[in-house]
Design a protein that fits this description.
The termini are far apart. The protein is mainly α. It is elongated. It has two domains: 60 residues, Homeodomain-like (Arc Repressor Mutant, subunit A), CATH 1.10.10.60; 126 residues, Tetracycline Repressor, domain 2, CATH 1.10.357. Helices cover 73% and strands 0% of the residues.
Length: 198
């Protein structure tokens, strides 16, 4: 029984170290040697638990998603609140992961080496939620639910990832509570203009 607990503890330590390494350096910049060092294990032990770097990143993302507080991530019923809600979730729970996704814009990744299937499921659920709200008459019929999801993703991610641009345009950093409050209010105003027309 002690061996099983030790194995689980070791695996958990590797996944935590992998998350830190991948989120800090991206997929291509991450090194198995660095992950081993962060986890306090040797490199060979990582390959005992994970067959490849691709398997490790996929399991790292899966583990990260499982650790999110699911009760707090249910989409609001009112579409006007979605952008503000997603912005808050991104700040409180997803910021490090979003930084990892920014690496994808500059890295060439092996196919499905970024938890793509799991992430697609989450993002498609946003489309489905928007489609259902549209059928309920809460979202204008002429707006494509997937394009609305993409727009909301852009508005709630971009200011956080491109902090220098945010600072140069607004004079505030994304971590500044004043910016967060102003941007949240702006998201609500924009959303009211879009969704109150339904």
């Amino acid at each position: 029984m002690g061996e099983i607990r030790n194995a689980e503890r070791t695996r958990k330590a590797i996944l935590q170290a992998a998350r830190d390494e991948f989120f800090d350096r991206g997929y291509n910049g991450a090194r198995i040697e660095s992950i081993a060092k962060r986890a306090g294990v040797n490199k060979q032990l990582i390959y005992h638990y994970f067959k490849s770097k691709e398997e490790l990143i996929n399991e790292t993302i899966e583990d990260f998603i499982k650790m999110l507080p699911s009760g707090n991530l249910t989409m609001p019923a009112d579409p006007v609140q979605i952008a503000e809600f997603r912005f808050k979730v991104n700040i409180e729970h997803l910021l490090d992961f979003l930084k990892f996704t920014a690496w994808e814009a500059v890295d060439t990744l092996p196919e499905n080496a970024n938890g793509e299937e799991r992430r697609r499921t989450v993002l498609q659920s946003y489309n489905e939620d928007m489609r259902v709200k549209q059928e309920m008459g809460l979202v204008p019929k002429e707006l494509d639910p997937s394009l609305l999801t993409l727009m909301l993703s852009s508005l709630t991610v971009y200011p956080l990832l491109y902090s220098n641009v945010t600072r140069m345009i607004t004079g505030h950093t994304p971590g500044d509570p004043e910016f967060q409050q102003k941007w949240s209010q702006f998201l609500r105003l924009i959303s009211e203009r879009i969704f109150r027309m339904a």
